[in-house]
Amino acid sequence: MKKVAVIPGDGIGPEVIAEGLRALAWFRAQRGVELELWQLDLGAERYLRDGTTFPNEVRDEILSSCSAVLLGALGDARVPGFEHARDILFGMRMGFDLYANVRPVRALSDGLVPLRGRGARDVDFVVFRENTEGVYAGIGGQLRRGTPDEIAINEDINTRKGVERIIRAAFAYARRTGQRRVLMSDKSNAMRHAHELWQRVFHEVRVEYPEIEARHLYIDALCMELVRDPSQFQVIVTNNLFGDIVTDLGAALQGGMGVAASVSLNPDHPERVKLFEPVHGSAPSLVGLGQANPVATLLCIALLLQELGFESAASELEVAIRGSIEARETTPDLGGSLSTRAVTDAVLGRLTPA
Ligand code: IPM
Ligand code: MN
How far, in Å, is the centroid of ligand 1 from the Cα of 307? Predict the structure, then answer.
């Protein structure tokens, strides 16, 4: 049986993960989707209690026995340095070499699209964010800290292998899913060394995919075009930092952070554990209010079901989520008045019991 490690994490993480698990329980009872769950007590509480962040035994066990990790959110004001979150999150993204952070940006209802004159059909693309290098590699240092002469450096790591494999993954995804357009975004006009590599590799790889229209925009222009006319995009590939930024912009286009899901995976090793995370953070101001939007997590569950081979359950769940949003059965962030739990009830209520 496939095993899923569950890390509710910090802030609203436990609240939204509880809803995701209720959805999984429904599919287990009604559709025979059998998954073994492994609850992990990791996050800020645990770190503050005994200093544990991401133990090696847990790491090894996830890698050797799990098909998926479901992560709620990480971030807690009591850990301002973000140490626990870095160990856990980057420990999986980088430690498991899950180099593709795949973030679908799909509006589920016309009413969620904030752009004048635009609807759901205009917002439907996927971002392939490089997930193992760039400025996230953590190479750098500080000199003369706290003095007027201090220096702070974060190196931007771009390897031939890292750039090539994420660009290739984007093209391969486009071919596999019948998309016609791939756009690569960098800042090669300013970052002449690192991003010239992106340019060169992009032009090399595109030749292998002649049926796919390959286009480039600098990241600043991409941000503008995403707001001006998001319908031009199907697959966007970019580096770690730009992918982080542009997917928050994407989340806004699809209805906000409450509805954005993601999966980190290694396309060269499809059997390797995949990491599913809502794109939103731990939202400390919402904790305990019952107002956290569970949709991002429910969409993660749909992605998880799909990636783990339960395709029809995945599309059933997605259709139900869409129906609920159309019917305005939502939390306050989407203009509704339902609680976190009531939104899940509404979604599950749209599914047909066996
Ligand atoms: C995300 C988050 C993380 C990131 C933070 C929490 C380090 O913003 O998943 O988008 O920058 O990758
Ligand atoms: Mn982010």
Answer: 22
Which atom number of ligand 1 is nearest to the Cα of residue 244? 10
Which residue type does 110 have? D
Q: Which residue type sits at 126?
A: V
Q: What is the pLDDT of residue 325?
A: 97
Sequence-ordered list of residues with C-beta below 8 angstroms from that of 297, at least 6 positions apart, any chain? 16, 17, 19, 20, 70, 72, 261, 278
DSSP class of residue 134 equals: B
Pocket test for ligand 1, best of 12, 89, 154 (most atoms within 8 A of CB): 89
The ligand whose atoms approach the alpha carbon of 93 most closely is 1
Ligand 2 centroid – CA 241 distance (Å) = 9
**Which whole number is the average pLDDT over 29-42?**
98
Ligand 1 neighbours (beta carbon < 6 A): 244, 279
- How buried is 208 (Cβ within 10 angstroms: 0-12 exposed, 13-18 middle, 19+ buried)? exposed
Mean pLDDT of all residues in 296-320: 98
Helix residue ranges per DSSP H, the chain: 13-31, 44-50, 56-65, 83-85, 91-93, 160-177, 194-206, 219-228, 240-254, 295-307, 311-326, 340-349
Which residues, 6+ apart, have CB-to-CB distance to 109 below 8 Å? 120, 255, 322, 325, 326
- Looking at every residue in the chain, the average pLDDT score rounds to 98
Rounded to an integer, what distance in angstroms lies between the CA atom of residue 252 and that of residue 183?
20
**Measured between alpha carbons, how far is 27 from 34 in angstroms, rounded to an integer?**
8
How many Å lie between the centroid of ligand 2 and the Cα of residue 279?
Answer: 6
List the beta bridge partners of residue 157.
134
The model's pTM: 0.97
How many whole angstroms from 145 Cα to the centroid of ligand 2?
27
Residue nearest to atom 3 of ligand 1 (CA): 244
